Structures are given as C-alpha cells and as structure tokens.
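Researcher: I'd like a structural prediction for the single chain below. Treat it as a standalone chain; there are no partners to consider.
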Amino acid sequence: MIEVEPDDARRVALRFAGLLSTQPTPGAARTSSATRQTAIVRSMLDELGAVQLDTISVLARSHELIAYARYGAVRRTAIEEAYWDGTSGFEYWSHAACVLPMASWPAFAFRRRHFRRKGERWHGVPTKDLEVLKATIRDLGPVTTSDVGGAKRGSEWWDWSDSKIALEWLLDIGEVAVTRRVGWRRTYDLVERVVPTALLHDDLTDEQCMAHLVRAGAGLMGIGTAGDIADVHRLPKAAVVRHAEEAGLVPVTVQGWPRAWATPDALDWLAAEGRDRHRTTLLSPFDPLVWYRDRAERLFGMRHRIEAYTPAHKRVHGYFAMPVLHRGRLVARVDPKRDRGALHARRVTLESTSRTAIEGTANALREAASWVGAERIIVDDVVPAGAATALSAAVAD
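Model: Treating it as a single chain, here is the predicted structure.
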C-alpha cells in the first residue's frame, strides 16, 4: 500500500483540476488571439471532462468562471465558442447539468437508458406528441423553446410548458442533443445531426459505461476516495470499488481519509521533480476543485456551502461566496457583485488574518475586477472586522 502525505494529495488535487503547473499564465491568455483562447478552453474541457452549468451570475456565470480560474482574462466570447461550437461538446446530466466533451457521448448510454426505463422526468410524463416535435426539428433545424411554444406555462421558473418538458425528455433519452446556445437558451437538434456517426451508438453495457466514467472521474481527482471519484459523474460509490482495478487505479492511504485510490499519472507526477506554479484566483462554488464539499474540507480545511438558496438573514458568508485560492490554499471567501462599474465584495471572510491571506485576497479581487471591466473595488464587510483596514489598503495598492 502506497502512503501519500495529505499535502501531496492536496497538490495532486490542484494539478489534476488544472490549477497547478500546466496552465498558461493569465498574461498569456489575455494576449492570445480569440482563436487561441478558444482552443485553450476547449482543451480544458477535454481534460476536466465536465464543466458544470448554473444560472446564477453575479461576477460571471459559473462555466465562465471555470476557465477564468485557470487562465485569467479569457475573452467570454472565446469561452462560449469553446463550449458551444456545435461539435466539441454537448450538454447532459453528469455531476449536474454539465457541458461534456463530445467524445464522452457513448459513456452516458447507461443514463439515457435509465431515463427511458423511468418513463418520466421530475416535471412528469411528457404529453406533447414527441414524433411531431421531432418532425418539426427535422424541418426547421435546431430550435429553442420559443420556436415551439415557449418554455413556461406561468411565471414560476418550474412551471414548464408541454414543449419544454418534451424537449428536455428527448434530451434525457438521447433523441435530441444540445451543442449550441442562443444567449442562455438551449438549442435542441436531432442527435444524428450533431453527434458524429462514430460515437452515435449505445452499445456499451451499463457496467462498461461506469468503468469508463470511473476512469474519467479518477483522472480529474488524481487521488480520491470512492465518494470523490463517484461524485464527478454521480455514480454509485460501489461502481468505483468494482471498477477500480479495471480502471488501473492504485490503492493508496492518506492520513485522515477513507479508503482511496490514485491514478498512475498522479503517482508519476508526485515522483517527478518539478516546481509548483500556483494560481491566485476566485473559484466558482461549482468548480471541480471544490464542488464535492466533503473532499474540499478534507483537502483544505474549509467547510464551504453555497447559500444562494438560504434566506438572506441566515447567510453566513453570502449569496454566492467564492473561495479564494492562493498559493495552493483556500485563504478566504468573497461574496461578489458587479454594480455600476464597481466590483462589490459584499462580504469577505478571511480564513486567517495573515499577510499572505490578505494579499492573496486583494490580488484575486483586483484580477477579477479587471476581467469584468470594473473600474473600482468596494469592500463592504470583512470578517474578522479587525482586518478590514489591512484588506482595503491591500486592494488599493
């Protein structure tokens, strides 16, 4: 049994999440052409294997923040093109609603079959004539919900129209696919028109699909427990145990961790001589480095929860508190908001009041402000309050 030090497990997590050693510098991303930036983000999608989507946008949407955290000031248009060029990726249920590399289409056959057997999604059984809807798409080409009757019946976000339920059902079972968006609206097309023929098959068994996704999940973790690896694509933990050997994973021990496995690449990387090159950045709460809260706490000692759905008076760290990554540690949380040319740090919670934590937080705020075009930074509330003066001075430097 190979023993891995907790600090080395943390370094591996950063490295295989794309936040250590291999990424271009923020300056390189800023000065690269749009085409080059798109290629960088497309490569990131292939390496991560999943980029989670979410509707919340306070600094930027989460899928934009994933690229920003790794490469700095990437043009938003380049990010959009990387995800939704119609050929490189598709949207489906993985860790949650995610953009996935097109090459992974066959591995999700087990989930498409699961939905088909279930016969309904959480909105209920589709009542719209699915064949008529597919014929409409065949005739019109890619459609948004507005092209086939609108997305909602009423004002509530969850009150979907029959057309929206039907389109999402066809997406669930793999008869339509989403590879483009118009604004933030999904564009649905017949799967045979967007998924390459070589990938357009569902002949992998459920166990073969899970074996593939265990390998992919472990590749993103580098070192992980069954829960860590399973959570990437929301598999049963038992699937990791069943397929660990088949996936080439190596059993390891990490002090304070449950049973864990490492990829050979992670162990080879640890054994090689190299200098860590860290990013200082704000992280989306949906970033792969921290999206599984138990793992984030085990790696960084930060118990982080998103509070967007918590009543305002009960929030501790803020509506969309973003962890601050600095020198390989999570040193603070920032709840940001853009407003009238300013970046408001509505609440900053420092994990420590050390000079390193304060300077790292200030640097992260300055870079984020520059990326979103904010002319000034306003720090509204700091915890502990005694650090407010030092943080404001560091931001102003």
